[in-house]
Amino acid sequence: MRSLVPVLVVVLGLLALWYAAVPVMNAAETLTRAERAGAVIDPPTAVERRDLSGLTLALRNPGLLGESWSLERPRLPAPHQVAAEIWATTWDEEVNGRRGIVQSGSFSNRSLIYHGGITLAATLSGFLIGSILGILLAVGIVHSRTMDLSVMPWAIVSQTVPIVALAPMIIVVLYSVGVQGLLPKAVISAYLSFFPVVVGMVKGLRAPERMDLDLMRTYSASRGQVFWKLRLPASVPYLFASLKIAIAASLVGAIVGELPVQKGGLGARMLAGSYYGQTVQIWSALFAAAVLAALLVWVIGWAERRTLRAMGVAG
Amino acid sequence: MAEARAATAPGPADAVISARGLDLTFQTADGPVHALKGVDLDIRRGEFVSFIGPSGCGKTTFLRCIAGLETPTGGTLSVNGMTADEARRSRAYGYVFQAAGLYPWRTIGGNVRLPLEIMGFPRAERDERVARVLELVDLAGFEKKFPWQLSGGMQQRASIARALAFDADLLLMDEPFGALDEIVRDRLNEELLRLWDRTGKTIGFVTHSIPEAVYLSTRIVVMSPRPGRITDVIDSPLPRERPLDIRDSREFIEIAHRVREGLRAGHVDE
Ligand SMILES: Nc1ncnc2c1ncn2[C@@H]1O[C@H](COP(=O)(O)OP(=O)(O)OP(=O)(O)O)[C@@H](O)[C@H]1O
Ligand SMILES: [Mg+2]
């Protein structure tokens, strides 16, 4: 409980900062509306105002900023606007909406739950593919010198290619061979998530010390036995550390993969929001993604604690 | 192959370990390190041989050569009439390292069971053996505990149990009691001696302690460093049956004196 206090202080600080930034960011729009309503702005003409910064405008017209926090299409929405939008597009939409799960039996395609679910499915499949691929590559790298020398450089190069540039190509290429829907997004997720798993697993599989390995030699253990009874258990803490990074990367991959397709998902929501200037929608999708990421990382952390405790490693 | 055997089995017929002119030079970044030079030694079946000498004289290295963990750069070495590596592959020995080296994710029982799993002992026999050796080292009831829940001395005993579990005829122990306090050490020494007496195992034992070497051994090998070599081999006339207070006897003190002289001579040599 005591650890909650610093967290709350930080959250409150950020909220205060956010509220303070809203009138500055939205100054031009707010003042234009106030002018239309008959107020006198300093400076009085739009031409004079054009080159002034939001901060200057806000400071010169402190009394006319009341609407900043409640604009329809703000440049920067206020926190309570985002919160209201999130509420409206989750609970309210599903429970009270005509297309919500209560009345229609399936999630509404206007709700963040629906879009979050699509993103989650792509994230999890990509994470699964990426993790398995990463583990297999790491096993190969640790056991074969050829793979050690050949795979690692390519794995590193693969991560230097910007994913935003690569994602549309992956989708187009897969589409041309008839693959669409979940899989292309999962492939992009896997592409981002295999790398931390490779790096972490290679380190973990090489974690046993010389004496641990010598002990196995005194038993004349086979490579397979050394792997299953020594290398693999020794790598578990490293594996979980890298899985946490991998799942977050998977989520980013899934969202990036949804941008060019526009068939649902949080990424699609964000892009649609930016097409129509719906900043509130962008922000609420952004928060939904952040909550999803936190949830996923937490689940892995929980599995980590359970596993390590069962292994007797975490005291 | 037959020729190689003949070349590696020069010792007496009942020699379990036979080394002739054994050399080992490590190539390091700072140039070659002569860890062993011209080591000649035969260890017969059922002997308890201690290796004593200053730090860095090659005790561990020699034990690792016998275990096939290190490859000598010269001379010949046979273990059970085979090369050391063949002996290792035929699981000829149990090895106790300088540190306990238990796997932290396995319980004490699981650690002792490890060699049995690897060597393919039947499941029922594994449990029975684990129980038996844990009893032997006084750790019955700790089977389900994890290593971090045990004291250092208990961990070391568990590592001895692990080396005993599969009942190899040869036991190689590298300062197994080095980190323990005097009283625990005395008890473990007594137990080890009883175990040796009862099972007739051949034991190679590295130590820094003169009383420990004299108390335990039928033969004491004194080594000296740079290059690592054997400077003296002392036969002990003490009986097999050795109560702890034998250490106050005149015979015991005489042997201890000889070992000390041997160690000192090794130092003067430098
Ligand atoms: N793997 C290695 N590579 C290089 N040099 C080594 C290696 N192992 C041992 N040596 C060197 O060989 C010499 C003998 O080492 P060894 O470990 O056998 O000594 P020791 O008698 O067991 O010493 P201690 O009583 O301190 O355990 C030392 O000089 C050591 O530095
Ligand atoms: Mg040593």
From TrEMBL, chain A:
GO process annotations (BP): transmembrane transport
Stretches of the chain forming a coiled coil according to its record: none
Superkingdom of origin organism: Bacteria
UniProt cross-references to PROSITE patterns, sorted A to Z: ABC_TM1 (PS50928)
One GO term describing the cellular component: plasma membrane
SUPFAM superfamilies on file: MetI-like (SSF161098)
Protein keywords: Cell membrane, Membrane, Transmembrane, Transmembrane helix, Transport
Membrane topology summary: Multi-pass membrane protein
Chief location category: membrane
Record InterPro entries: MetI-like, MetI-like_sf
Protein family (similarity comment): Belongs to the binding-protein-dependent transport system permease family.
Name of the protein described by the UniProt record: ABC-type nitrate/sulfonate/bicarbonate transport system, permease component
Organism, as annotated: Wenxinia marina DSM 24838
From TrEMBL, chain B:
Protein's UniProt keywords contain Transport: yes
InterPro entries: AAA+_ATPase, ABC_transporter-like_ATP-bd, ABC_transporter-like_CS, ABC_transporter_ATP-bind, P-loop_NTPase
GO molecular function: ATP binding; ATP hydrolysis activity
Classification via Pfam families: ABC_tran
Superkingdom of this protein's organism: Bacteria
SUPFAM superfamilies according to UniProt: P-loop containing nucleoside triphosphate hydrolases
Keyword Transport on entry: yes
CDD domains with a match to the protein in the record: ABC_NrtD_SsuB_transporters
PANTHER family, alphabetized: ALIPHATIC SULFONATES IMPORT ATP-BINDING PROTEIN SSUB, TAURINE IMPORT ATP-BINDING PROTEIN-RELATED
Family: Belongs to the ABC transporter superfamily.
Name this protein carries in UniProt: ABC-type nitrate/sulfonate/bicarbonate transport system, ATPase component
Origin species: Wenxinia marina DSM 24838
Top-level taxonomy: Bacteria, Pseudomonadati, Pseudomonadota, Alphaproteobacteria, Rhodobacterales
